[in-house]
Fold Recombinase family protein.
Amino acid sequence: MKAAIYARYSSDNQREESIDAQIRAIKDFASHNNIQIVKIYTDEARSATTDDRPQFLQMIKDSEFNIFNTVIVHKLDRFSRNRYDSAFYKKKLKDNHVKLISVLEHLDDSPESIILESVLEGMAEYYSINLSREVMKGMKETALQCKHTGGTPPLGYDVNPDKTYCINEKEANAIRLIFQMYASGTGYTPIIDKLNDLGYKSKTGKSFGKNSLYGILTNEKYRGVYIFNKSSKKINGKRNSHKIKSEDEIIKIEGGMPEIISEDLWKRVKIKMDSNKINKGANTAKAIYLLSGLIYCGKCGSAMTGNRRYAGRNKSLYETYECSNRKRTKQCDMKAINKDYVEQVVIDDLYNNIFSDSAIENIVPDIFAFISEQNKIINEDIKIYKKELADIQTKIDNMLDAIANGFYNSSMKEKSDQLETRKTTLLIRINEAEREAKLNSPTEDMIKKYLKKDSDIKQKSLENKKKVIQTHVQKITVYEDRITTDTIVSLIGGGDGCRTRVRK
């Protein structure tokens, strides 16, 4: 078995050495299981809540080339703290015939293990959200004092030692030029050309672009208003200045910033920007396909993809899933299936078999029994580690006694170093195993709460419905006369793992 290591540390109370500790533990695990390590990927000071991780994405890409057939992480939250991203990237690995293994979580391919993995990911996601909430609390206190909360200050400003803002006059001249030219009717391209001719750069030293101009022209800080927590984040964690949070989430303090442009200039720019907005028609709206990447044709096995078209005398809108093989090569005659119908089948199955009160009562005991078995394995590992540690300590003591009695030769130093290295590794493994046995043992009540938080799946927004489906559904197969949905817990208690609905 050939494996790649993925290790990561973020800035939340972790240091660079934690990557070394992860790699050391993974290599030890690999050597005890006859696994060959062929590549190591590491991301430093990167959060698992975002896929803005260069080495992680490189690993996903490399999984296509049969370099390795296994990815080993120290713990599942090193892979992702977001259930949706975790499910998405694990599916990519699975499609490339690559298995994900966690050193600390003893998981296998059984349905109980799969749902436990989902529970652990959910708990890690909760931890990440809770941590973000605590960090945000501290940042809000700083913001109420109109102080810098971190990151790069806006162009035109510097940060004083006490974290208050001051004007950077050279950069502020670029800001004034941008507002004055735009207010006078000049478009983005001539403004960018003028800035480049004058040698102005963005805060990061790059040339200006249309997006950076939009961000400047809509930034109220330049008119003296302190703003915090205004823009939302994209799925990959980056700021999206075009998507604004609700007013009750934003901290806005008039006069909280040194003013670079006048109120009159700001109003003139705003009026012009509002008049230039293009109202998008309803025909440009994009449908959200809840089953993307999960739905397959029962005739030829190809993936089914979303299709949106207007047809008939009244140009009615039809949204369907179609066999990609039929669409591409015409070699399959499977008919398209109505999007709303098949999505409702899957949502009903998830509710009835996972999230309803009766389903939860049936599932939880099996999951908890599996957890108990896994804890036995962890405790057995601890016993083995402690026995080996005791044996090594005896050898070290005997060697020290021999040296004290004058029996010393040059090979003893090398042997002593080997024993001490193994001792350090075992101490780390014991500490981590004991911690995992204590922390990663969800009670039946915790598992119930985890499942019940998605019991309102039928009322969730389309985006949240998609996240739940992508997390809990492995595969949907559409035949001419039926639809089968295969969920991560449908095998618990026996059966073929499918819930079947007669196709309309």
